[in-house]
Amino acid sequence: MIPVAEFKQFTEQQPAFKVLKPWWDVLAEYLTVAMLMIGVFGCTLQVTQDKIICLPNHELQENLSEAPCQQLLPRGIPEQIGALQEVKGLKNNLDLQQYSFINQLCYETALHWYAKYFPYLVVIHTLIFMVCTSFWFKFPGTSSKIEHFISILGKCFDSPWTTRALSEVSGENQKGPAATGRAAAAIVATAGAGLGKAGEGEKEKVLAEPEKVVTEPPVVTLLDKKEGEQAKALFEKVKKFRVHVEEGDILYTMYIRQTVLKVCKFLAILVYNLVYVEKISFLVACRVETSEVTGYASFCCNHTKAHLFSKLAFCYISFVCIYGLTCIYTLYWLFHRPLKEYSFRSVREETGMGDIPDVKNDFAFMLHLIDQYDSLYSKRFAVFLSEVSESRLKQLNLNHEWTPEKLRQKLQRNATGRLELALCMLPGLPDTVFELSEVESLRLEAICDITFPPGLSQLVHLQELSLLHSPARLPFSLQVFLRDHLKVMRVKCEELREVPLWVFGLRGLEELHLEGLFPQELARAATLESLRELKQLKVLSLRSNAGKVPASVTDVAGHLQRLSLHNDGARLVALNSLKKLVALRELELVACGLERIPHAVFSLGALQELDLKDNHLRSIEEILSFQHCRKLVTLRLWHNQIAYVPEHVRKLRSLEQLYLSYNKLETLPSQLGLCSGLRLLDVSHNGLHSLPPEVGLLQNLQHLALSYNALEALPEELFFCRKLRTLLLGDNQLSQLSPHVGALRALSRLELKGNHLEALPEELGNCGGLKKAGLLVEDTLYQGLPAEVRDKMEEE
């Protein structure tokens, strides 16, 4: 016999594939097993038993063609047997061989092909049905997607995060409509709150209030770090799998094709079986030309398995009919509804995760099949399609990783002296941040999709907030808190239109620093949100590519004291609106492509500091107009292309600091000595060959930078500047240093490296404030000083 196990390979699938087999496929599988048993049983009988038994026909030879075999055995068989006369054939002592020969010959020539091959046909058709049913599980283009889907589905179903997410939703639903109507941001914020106290708090609550156990949400176990990482990896796998599978519909098409093929096969089998099933008869007439061998030409044959085969045929036809009906129902199910679209509407309503997206194509088709098995699979799988669920998981992982103790180790004072917590490149904002009530400055960099939770109000000392490439949403309830506490706000983004609108409503803000680009089509207009709500704004910094000063800057003209515009080389054209900034004290126009000093600056009567760094200034003839800015004390014209300083610089008598470094100066005007209020002069990184003697008139000069020039000698008058504390002469061509340097008793820093000095004057010992740390010179020159001078400099 042929064991049924030999055919197992045709239907063998991974056990996990059963989730993609609806009830009709399961029924069809059992039907094919039954049909296969019929075929195998019939084949076994064919092989192990005699197929046909033939006897000679005792009618006369001339009547052989008129005496059918069926008439030989009517109801009165005994009477007719007695009436038959004995007819003798040829005797050759080979009776057994003769009958075997006749049996085989009649089986091949007289028996209908359907009766001969019925069991083999059953086996072949059943195997075809089996192949059609499981083909999409074996075909490379579909099996890979199915295996991947089943693998992810099982992990999603068994993931502890799935249980936690659904349990949280169940708890929220028990709290009533108010809880389910909360915003996603509030859910994320509270997901990890009080994690460390969860175990004790729940236990005490149950003991203290047993009557409220029914209404309490289910206790949710905490995820350990490994489980959290596994859930995080599952989210990424689901995203990539969704993108991959939603691109095509090969699974849907393959399933339809194999179902249509099974229906066609069913119809063909049903038709020819109904036509030929009557050909299975018990008696078969056989006429063969063997009279010369056996003495007979007509035989009456008995098909020994005809009765059994006819019964098996009717059973087989019945099974085929049931199988065909299931296939027809499958086609109806495939076409009566859109299976290439799947909606999670019921899951969204049940779980409260309103952001679960609908899916399409093969992804949708597999989910429809899963629902025929168990709809719970789709519900648990949907948890990993929800961004809200993913954000909850990220929040829990963050809270596990960034404990309050770990965050306190990152606290340090920033440049303004505030206690700052800086977080960079995190997947989210840990809730534990809001347990550090001592934080005064919060700096968030490269953190995506921040939603500030209600816990932000616990940072009662917060005064400064920096959002660097970190888009943030702020609930309306927290705007009042920030409006009352926040003093400094820094926002850096790719485009200025990404700046959160709530920033422009912080009425208590004193400093606002914005960095980002205007779109090319809007750069010329440079439209910025209204600043009217910022009633206390004193400092505004804007780094962009604006074509003009934003019109909204005039909204704060009455109280703005410092304005900084950094244009990264983009030319700033329209500056007339600066005239309205009557209270402005400090103005920075950095890298704005300016070729001349803007005339609007001369109208700023309250201006004290002006910085025109990194522009294209070649001439500063307009410097005379600065005499109208009577309060101007600092002028920075560094990093330009200025070739000379006009003589009327003498008019700037109130000027205290003048920066002219990184220009193309070769001389300085003697009138510079008339700027009697000058305390700092920086002309380093130029091409100066000499200094005018009038520099000695700068009696208030305390800082003089002459590094990186071409000075060969210093005027003796320079050492009349008794208040000089810093003198930078490095990288020049000085061959000697005048002994009069000893007159600079207040000197505390002297740079001489990079010159051609052969020795240092011993009068340096008279500079009481000059120590070894403040003297920057080659070691050989320093060692050439008298020992007592060196000892004096090395004294503490």
TrEMBL record:
The keyword Signal does not apply. It is found in: Cell membrane; Endoplasmic reticulum membrane; Lysosome membrane. It catalyses: chloride(in) = chloride(out); iodide(out) = iodide(in); 2',3'-cGAMP(out) = 2',3'-cGAMP(in); taurine(out) = taurine(in). SUPFAM superfamilies: L domain-like. The chain crosses the membrane at residues 27-47, 117-137, 313-335. Its main location: membrane. Gene3D superfamilies: Ribonuclease Inhibitor. One of its GO terms (cellular component) is endoplasmic reticulum membrane. Keywords: Cell membrane, Disulfide bond, Endoplasmic reticulum, Glycoprotein, Ion channel, Ion transport, Leucine-rich repeat, Lysosome, Membrane, Repeat, Transmembrane, Transmembrane helix, Transport. GO terms for biological process: aspartate transmembrane transport; cell volume homeostasis; cellular response to osmotic stress; cyclic-GMP-AMP transmembrane import across plasma membrane. Residues 1-331 form the LRRC8 pannexin-like TM region domain. It is a multi-pass membrane protein. One of its GO terms (molecular function) is volume-sensitive anion channel activity. PROSITE patterns: LRR (PS51450). Pfam families: LRR_1, LRR_8, Pannexin_like. InterPro entries: Leu-rich_rpt, Leu-rich_rpt_typical-subtyp, LRR_dom_sf, LRR_domain-containing, LRRC8_Pannexin-like. Belongs to the LRRC8 family. This is Volume-regulated anion channel subunit LRRC8E.
